């Protein structure tokens, strides 16, 4: 420090007037030419002044020099502010391009939609804020830029998922496969991971394009790549949920069998729990009613009305003339879970109008007016509505498997109640049956043993869920679990939990879904058990939702969309637990100025 002072390395205020220098960010800066001097020594500063600017300013006295210095300092600050503003505007333009690119991906729009949006923005700007036109013009939204931004956003999401995966104590996978518009098989793999704080992360792990066959071995290889690429250990995999296809659930050559074999090779101590999608199972249970003949008749009627344009137009005009509450009848689509109930209910509500319209077309409506058929139609409408309500309960993101299982158990209990009431002639929970009974006093509904048939089908198809009932109860209501029936490794901790009044009060306050986070670290086995249950997928709903987005993204008019771009777009549109770090991405990007007619 003494040496530095001895050599005059501290900038002195008098040098401003003497040598026209100022001190900016720990460096002497020439106010005339803006050059930085590396070392703050008087000799260096004086030499620069004398060799560069002495002749020009030698005739100024000290007052004039002071005035000149102040003027130059103001000019320097103005320049610095201008550069800061330009930098701020450039960062804002880059961030805006990322935000727009994310919205384009989420809305399944093509990349060149950015150019259209840019034109709209500029026209709006001309009218609303013409002074901001340059700022809007700086936002780069060309096709190539939007594609690049989409890649950056998806990569950032994947990097975040990989970082979160390091903290997972348990994770499960949901796997399903569907074909896109170009008949390429797309395998979707979702992950549901739980960290040490019992926080759940639910995201797309990978979308793999399969251009050849889709055997169990090939599906396993793609799933294995997804797990390996994100560097997750196999011993933390606790659950696998599929759509129930043979290539998925085969015990030897299917995905399930091969994953279990892989876990044995990796010497994993835990056992893999496998589920067939609970929503698929629920939809299949409805077939146990054996009432296809009613659905076939309804479908034939709807197809007659809607298959030909003339019939369809005339039917809609007929409904309008009648002053009907409804304007049309929907098509029945087998692959849509709720389509069956909607078509049945609409046809039941419009049964009289449909018969009148068919008669004007010379069609025989005797079957549609039969008492037996009307009773069967009313009963099928009501039971389908109840099944649809259950289906909706099972749908959605972030659903805990214990809640889904509870909904199924509740439905099985309701079945017994409904059957007893129907046998007693009390269809209080079946509004369509009530409507028919009010019109036909001798109405007989096909209710005999319907609950028994459905309950038996539910029990058969949900056997894999019933086998986990004890584990489900440990998550849904640990205070009511019989300790003797619990696994031996958690019995001691379970007793401590059940005897802790503070934790019981917390459970009553926050509910079963949030309570596991409050289990103390002194109960590691219970926390591990809770993490495993929280990580379980009850259905492949997320896969189905992704495929719906895929159908809107890769349409018949956009078949040339590459597999890579499809994967990137769907990663952004399906993101829920994570969001792209746009500030970080923008800070890494060089500012790009784009005109209306240019491309990056």
How are the SSEs ordered, and which strands pair?
Blueprint: H1 2-6, H2 14-19, E1 21-24, E2 27-30, H3 42-52, H4 54-57, H5 62-106, H6 113-128, H7 133-137, H8 143-165, E3 168-179, E4 185-195, E5 200-210, H9 216-229, E6 237-242, H10 246-249, H11 255-265, E7 273-276, H12 278-285, H13 292-307, H14 309-322, H15 339-349, H16 351-360, H17 366-369, H18 371-394, H19 401-423, H20 431-439, H21 450-461, H22 463-466, H23 469-476, H24 491-498, H25 501-510, H26 524-534, H27 541-553, H28 563-574, H29 582-588
Parallel strand pairs: 3-6, 6-7
Antiparallel strand pairs: 1-2, 3-4, 4-5
Helix pairs in contact: 5-8, 5-29, 8-28, 9-11, 12-18, 13-14, 13-15, 15-18, 18-20, 19-21, 19-23, 23-26, 27-28
Question: Overview of this structure, please?
Answer:
The structure is a single chain. The protein is α/β, with parallel strands linked by helices and 600 residues long. The protein is 58% helix and 9% strand. It contains 29 helices and seven strands. The strands form two sheets. The protein has a five-stranded mixed beta sheet, with helices on both faces. Strands 1-2 form a two-stranded antiparallel sheet. β4 and β5 form a beta hairpin. α23 crosses α26. The two termini are 53 Å apart. The N terminus and C terminus are likely disordered.
